[in-house]
Design a protein that fits this description.
two-stranded antiparallel sheet; about 300 residues; mainly alpha; globular; 8 helices
């Protein structure tokens, strides 16, 4: 039978190869724009990117996808490689917690591609990345659950009031950031303003349906001294940090593509997430600095 180390290595190697393929293919689309107009299902005129992997995506959304690809390739892939190397050398609980945060971000990223990008030749690669990220998360959660059962109650002393306030404010902000647009569209009896060629807004689904509730659920676990609350908190800090890096990069690619971004959108959306990332980075550093899991080796 395969050892946990073998499974872990296979998951990481295939994930890294898929990420390189997907992100480089996405980045190559930036110089291939050949925009044209299209009338969508809602009767609105939409400008299409017109070239590369994102050739059938809207001119507004394609630079966002490309910005995400750039962030994943430049920030997340090296981070995953480093964590993979460290875990092979020392399969400690701390390194597995770090790996969990990365795969959570990749699950978000792969879901956005698999469900949010118009169909293209990388569709199978998107599915494969989504599948690897999903089952890597399950494998890691199994490890954490087993440790949680052995550990019993987990001390609340790790968590400051500021961290708990962050969870509440961030969870509420993620929900309120997208809710007004949806409510307005429902009352107007029409689609979202930027639905364009898509059937739904995947960011709304992930942020409002998963990330925001997970923050409140994490607060509940922390309050009940469950070790999984600590794991989820570390993961959420990592995801918030990377999203705070990704959003400005996406905006830069949009500006380079000639898209005008309203100042109100920059303030309400981008600066909010950047501020969240700043606090998340500080809290993650605090928790990692006082971590006692570096010398606890997970069974190989």
């Amino acid at each position: 039978m395969f050892s946990r180390k073998t499974f872990y290595s296979v998951f990481n190697i295939f994930t890294i190869l898929l990420l390189i393929l997907i992100t480089i293919s996405g980045l190559s689309s930036f110089g291939q724009a050949a925009p044209y107009d299209f009338i969508n299902l809602y009767g609105d005129r939409v400008e299409i990117w017109g070239g590369g992997i994102y050739g059938h995506d809207s001119y507004f959304k394609a630079p966002i996808f490309i910005g995400s690809d750039f962030t994943i390739l430049v920030v997340v892939v090296p981070w995953l490689l480093l964590t993979f190397y460290r875990t092979l050398k020392n399969p400690s609980l701390e390194n597995y917690i770090s790996n969990f945060g990365i795969y959570s971000l990749l699950l978000y990223y792969s879901a956005s591609l698999a469900f949010g990008v118009t169909y293209n030749i990388l569709h199978l690669a998107y599915i494969a990345l989504f599948s690897l990220s999903f089952f890597a998360e399950l494998m890691l959660l199994k490890i954490f659950h087993g440790f949680s059962l052995r550990l019993g109650k987990f001390s609340k002393s790790y968590f400051s009031k500021a961290m708990k306030v962050f969870l509440f404010v961030a969870g509420l902000s993620l929900f309120l950031a997208w809710l007004p647009d949806i409510i307005i569209s429902i009352f107007k009896g029409r689609s979202l303003g930027l639905i364009e060629v898509y059937t739904t807004e995947i960011t709304n689904v992930l942020d409002m349906g998963i990330i925001s509730p997970l923050m409140f659920f994490t607060y509940y676990l922390i309050k009940n001294e469950d070790f999984l609350g600590y794991v989820f908190l570390r993961m959420l800090f990592k995801v918030c940090l990377c999203i705070g890096i990704m959003l400005p990069i996406q905006t830069i690619f949009q500006v380079l593509a000639g898209i005008s971004i309203p100042l109100a959108a920059v303030i309400s959306k981008i600066l909010t997430f950047v501020l969240m990332a700043f606090f998340a980075a500080y809290f993650e550093w605090t928790l990692k600095r006082q971590s006692k899991w570096k010398n606890i080796v997970v069974e190989r």
